[in-house]
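Contributing new complexes? Match this layout with adenosine-3',5'-cyclic-monophosphate.
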Amino acid sequence: MSEITLSIIKPDAVRNGYTGKILAQIQAADLKIVGLRMLQLSRKEAEGFYAVHKERPFYQELVEFMISGPVVVSALEGEKAIERYRKLMGATDPAKADEGTLRKLFAESLQNNAVHGSDAPETSRVEVAYFFSSVDLVS
Ligand code: CMP
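Output block (do not edit by hand):
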């Protein structure tokens, strides 16, 4: 079944000039880009996006990082897109990520880990809608 997942190219990767390389890898992995925006998150938007991590010790620092520069958000469509994009990203901690994954190649640290991807269909629906209205997505 075809799914849509949300990708964020985080401020570290945008700052380091990896946007094009990451989008190229997404396309090479046969994930179809059906929405694409570059934006500067406000503090409120970053706090809202990561609200599930509110009680975690790293939350405030994560919010600071996510507003430290522009991000590139995209909606990716394909069969099992959520799982396939998570595989392409690699483990959250780049030190534990497999060779060739986006985080192994482009991340700076556990926090500055280059990319975000939705982890389940329920979260992907909320996350895609956080940045795109249905008219913004191509079919
Ligand atoms: P992401 O997949 O976007 O989901 C939550 C983010 O919090 C994660 O990527 C990292 O950027 C960050 N994160 C997760 N665990 C830690 C941690 N232990 N310390 C610092 N940042 C973390």
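Reviewers usually confirm one structural detail per submission. For this one: The chain has a mean pLDDT of 98.
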